[in-house]
Design brief:
This protein folds into four domains: 66 residues, no CATH class; 78 residues, no CATH class; 121 residues, Nucleotidyltransferase, domain 5 (2-Layer Sandwich), CATH 3.30.420; 41 residues, no CATH class. 38% of the residues lie in helices and 19% in strands. The radius of gyration is 39 Å and the shape is elongated. With 392 residues, the protein is of the alpha+beta class. The longest helix has 31 residues.
Length: 392
Amino acid sequence: MATATGKVHVVKVTKTGYVDKQGNRRDYRSAYLRRTYRDGGKVKNETVANLSALPPHVVDLIDAGLKGVPLVPASAAVAIARSVPHGHVAAVHAMAGQLGLPALLGPACRERDLAYALVVSRAARPGSKLAGLTWWDDVTLGADLGVAGASTDQAYAAMDWLAGRQDQIEKQLAARHLAAGDANPARTALFDLSSSWLEGLHCPLAARGYSRDGKKGRVQIEYGLLTDPGGRPVAVRVFPGNTGDLAAFTEIVNVVRGQFKLAEMILVGDRGMITSARIRALNTDGEGAELPAGQRYQWITALRAPAIKKLMAEDGPLQLSLSDEQDLAEITSDDFPGERLIACRNPVLAAERTRKRQALLAATEKLLAPVIARVQAGRLAGRTRSASRPAR
C-alpha cells in the first residue's frame, strides 16, 4: 500500500433538497481536510479531519492558508491614515430618523439629502451654511449622507427646494402638534416675533425697525414662529425689518385658519399683540359678521398699563386688597365684556420696581445737589438763572 504523502486541502460539500421526517426541506453543508495521493495507478483521497463543526470564516482561513495566501493580523494589514469624529453626528442622525425628519422634508433625492445634512449640522455644530459644507468632510456626516464635496451652489439650490416645500411641511407639523390629541388636548398654539440684524446691502427684507436683540442703527429682518405648548415649531414666517407685531400676528393667524384649517384654537400672545380690535377682527368673517361660537378663537394675553391703571382706579374692580390673602384673583369689568380677567400680584416684580425707583431718585438727588449748594450759597438765584444753569 502506498504511503499518503500528498498535500492536504479543504473540501466543501453542500447537499440541498434533503427532506427530513417532519417534511421540512434542509440544506447541509460540511467541510473536510483531505489529502490526495496516488496508489499505483489510482488517485485516492484521505480525510485527515472533519472541519464541519468550525465556523465558516475559520474554514475559509484554513483554506486560504493551504493555498499559499499570506495571512497577517488586521493591525498589520491596515494602517489608519485618518480618523474623523462620528458619535455626535450619529446621535443627531439617529434621533432625527426616529422623529421622521427625512420623510417630513420630502421624497428621497439629492436636494433632500443636502437639506437634511444642513439641519443635522445646525443641531450638532451650529454655524453658517457655508461653514457646514467644509465641516462635513471633517466628520462622518458627509460620507454617511453622500453629500461630501457638495458645492455652495448645490447647498443654496437645496434650500430653494426646501422653501418650495414649506407649505407641505407645515401642514404635516400642524397635524402632528396642533391637532386634538394627547400631545395637545387644549389645541393651544404659541406665537412670538423676534428680529436678527444683518450685514450687507442686498437682502430685500432688510429694513430698520425695533431691534429685539439690542442692535440699534442696523438693518434687520423679523420672523414669527408658531409652536405648540412644548415649543415644537410648526410654522415660521419672515417679514421685513420694519413690520409691526400686529401685522405679523395677523398673517400667522391667517396661516393657522386658512392653511391648517384649525378653527378652534387658543392663541397666546405678548402684551399688546392681541388687542381688543384684533380679537374682533379675528372672530368676524370677511363681511364683518361674527363667526359661530365653534369657530371663534380664544386667547390669552396681558393688558397694557393704561388698562390696568383704569381697573385699579378708586372704584375699579382691581384692588390690591384682593392679593392680601391669595396670589390670583378673577375679576370682571364692563370694559371687557365676556372676558375673564386674572389679577396676579408679583412680589418679585414689585421689589424690582421699588429698587429701580429708589435708584432713579438717588441719581436725581445727586445731580441736583450742586444746584442746591449754589442756591444756598447765593451764587444762583431766580427761576430764570436756575433754569439756565443745570447741574453738569
